[in-house]
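Moderator note: this is an archived Q&A kept for reference. The question asked for a predicted structure of one protein chain; the sequence and the answer are reproduced below.
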Amino acid sequence: MPTGEQIGLSDRGLRLVIIADDLTGALDAAAPFAEAGLTVRVATRPQSLAVAIGRAEVVGVSTRSREISPQEARATVAATLAAIPQDVPVFKKIDSRLKGNIAAELQAFGDMPLLAVPALPDFGRVVSGGAVRGWGVDKPIPVAQFLGRPAHVPDVTTRAEMEAA
């Protein structure tokens, strides 16, 4: 199968940046775009973002901010956002069990509307009634309390609902 570069996809430029708080999240969120034939790069830290942006249609970046203080996490995400061209959409990947400094990191996004869908329906983890439920979740986890701001949290129990969201 030819790569995105071989068939000219990279000529279209940067289409999306995915910000994740760890490398696994950045890779997991970027993988479907690579599978769809887009040119994808993942920066293992924010300092590598500029190089990745110049070489891909979709860029994932690990801010390495899950295990640091909330203040450091917010500052790291804010600096990462500042390095992204303003006309490029940004997807903030959060952990499906809501681990990390989610509220602090979302503060860096300002007032922009927020859609929160921490579900993995293909693996049995869903959002229902505003809470994460299913595989690996002992008791429902209310999504809103981890966001630190208003958000739209749709029920997502199937792949089709995830795609629609």
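Archived answer notes: The longest strand covers residues 16-20.
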